[in-house]
Amino acid sequence: MNTETHAIADVHLLDTLKWLCARFGDSVNDDELTQLLRKTALPTEAGFAFLRFSNGCVTLTVPPQNLADWCAENGSFTPLKRWVAGLIAEKHGLSVQETIQDASKPVFPTTEGPHIHNHLELSDPSETLLVAHPRFLKVRMFESGSADRDDLGSNKMVTFRPDLLEDLSLLYELKEEH
């Protein structure tokens, strides 16, 4: 049994990832860290699971989504998604922006339509901390430009409330009536 994983099994996913990033420190690059984290029995939380670590951010998998639950035919986000994102942003002291793909730019054709690149960003005054996309969730763990992963007490770590992933799961659970 991996005792490190057992010791942190009751901790939230983001806290577990921060603890492990600090444990591995700067002695490994992002690709090596991703491989090490994939070999660790990480918890899942609220439907989210670890996918990759890169540039101070962690990318998480999300439950399967229907793009129609996210975007209207004109490419804008559904009122339900905008409303839920706004509630989450307000609760966590963030602002929310819709990032919509410019329809004039060529997009590789997909069966999902041209709006697959659209996402919601939740930010503090200095930077984007969360990217909610129908296919992934990206969470900033360390401030932009900070590669320092050595110290859990570092002021370079981004701090979130423990219920963040539970709140964000609402974006991925709620379905539009079609």
Strand content: 15-25%
Taken together, the total number of domains comes to 1
Side by side, the strands of the main sheet go: 1-2-6-5-4-3
Which structural class best describes the helix and strand composition? alpha+beta
Shape: globular
Please provide the ordered H/E string of secondary-structure elements: HHHEEHEEEEH
Number of continuous helical runs: 5
Radius of gyration: 17 Å
Count the E strands: 6
Sheet bearing the most strands, described?
6 strands, antiparallel
For the residues shown, what is the average pLDDT? 83
In the predicted model, the low-confidence regions spanning at least 5 consecutive residues are 1-9
* Helical coverage, percent range: 25-40%
Distance between the termini: 47 Å
Description:
With about 180 residues, the chain is α+β, with helices and mostly antiparallel strands. It has one domain. It is about 30% helix and about 20% strand. The protein contains five helices and six strands; from the N terminus they run H-H-H-E-E-H-E-E-E-E-H. A six-stranded antiparallel β-sheet has the order 1-2-6-5-4-3. A hairpin with a 4-residue loop joins strand 4 and strand 5. Helix 4 runs antiparallel to helix 5. The longest helix has 13 residues. The chain is globular, with a radius of gyration of 17 Å. The N terminus is likely disordered.
